[in-house]
Amino acid sequence: MIKRQTSNQMGMSLIEVMVVMAVMTLIGLGTASLMKNMFSVQRSAALKLSVWEIQKNLVTILKNDASWAGSLNNAANVAILGCLRDSPVPVTGCNNGQTGNNFVIHDRRGGAWYNPILPNTGFAVDGTVCNTFSAVLGAGDDSCPFRFEVAWTGFCPGGVGPCEKPQVTLALTLIYNPGDPSDPRNRLNVADYALTFPRNERLTFEPFEIRHVRSGGAGGGACASNSWNNPRPLTNILYDQANNVTLAGTRFTVQPGAYRCKISAQGYRATSGFSIRLWDVTNSTAFYVGGGFANAESTTYAMGTVNFRRANPTVFELQHFSPNCSAGGFSMGRAAPTDTVLTSISCVRSS
User: Fold this and answer.
1) How many other β-carbons are positioned within 10 Å of the β-carbon of residue 66?
2) Separation of CA 185 from chain center
3) Is the pTM of this model over 0.85?
4) Residues 104-123: pLDDT tens digits?
5) Cα(330)–Cα(333) distance, rounded to whole angstroms?
6) Within a 10 A sphere around the Cβ of 185, how many other Cβ atoms?
7) 252 forms bridges with which residues in the sheet?
8) Partners of 51 in the beta sheet?
9) What's the rounded Cα separation, in Å, for the pair 194 and 149?
10) Tens digits of residue pLDDT in 69-78
11) Quick check: helix, strand or coil at residue 24?
12) Do residues 212 and 233 touch, judged by C-beta distance below 8 A?
């Protein structure tokens, strides 16, 4: 007797079909789980990238001179940043280790950009500033889930305060509160985004130059021996980029700020030698510049550089000293037939 086969070699048995279906189901479940994990990883990576970009933008703006100047001059920041301001200049400056938290941050065009003083101010995922942030657990807003707290600390040179221009260190602290913080896709370690960095003193470049120019062979003025009471004549302000200086007779007044000045003064027949100093009339303080010596019928120059910082408008004059002004008919300079610069005070205001 010939037995019949229960399956066709061209087809599959019922058991084989069930096995294939089971395998396909497992593959489908695995693929779905894999896709879910992939989407979760992509979402987490996108969140991290967004935070890094927001933090990078904050650091760039806080280090920008124009942005920092706008923040310092914002009226809402007086109580927080007041001791760092250039104008009006604080009376005592900042204490060593002085701190402040959250202030209005200006952008590079001078406008207010981010205001962490307001508790609901934060950042959207795309980096734009938003105002629906909530730090209450369970009340987070996915459209405004990030917030950076901003703090500053000032350190005086040598650790001695108060000082007018401390080294400023800024600290950023991230607060992250999404709509569902329990969702694994929303997990973010905020400690990874804590950042502290120094902010260099805001620098500017505002030059001016004052001169004493004579012509026709006339001398630059006589002097009294063994006395600093010999102010050098000053003729005019050659240039003043930012209106930082005014001239009145032999004295000039500078506005508050930090200055670096190169000074040159001529001496004619300085057979006994001569010296010059920059005298702070307002504060009775001297900055000694340099000296020179010349033989009879010859000219020499005293030259040097001085640096100073003043918190208020300050009056200066350039003074001259010689132990024997009468020797050889000494004068503060002798002009040639054409215009000669007998005295030059060239300064740059840097902050």
Assistant:
1) 14
2) 38
3) no
4) 999 877 789 999 999 999 99
5) 8
6) 15
7) 247, 316
8) none
9) 10
10) 889 888 899 9
11) helix
12) yes
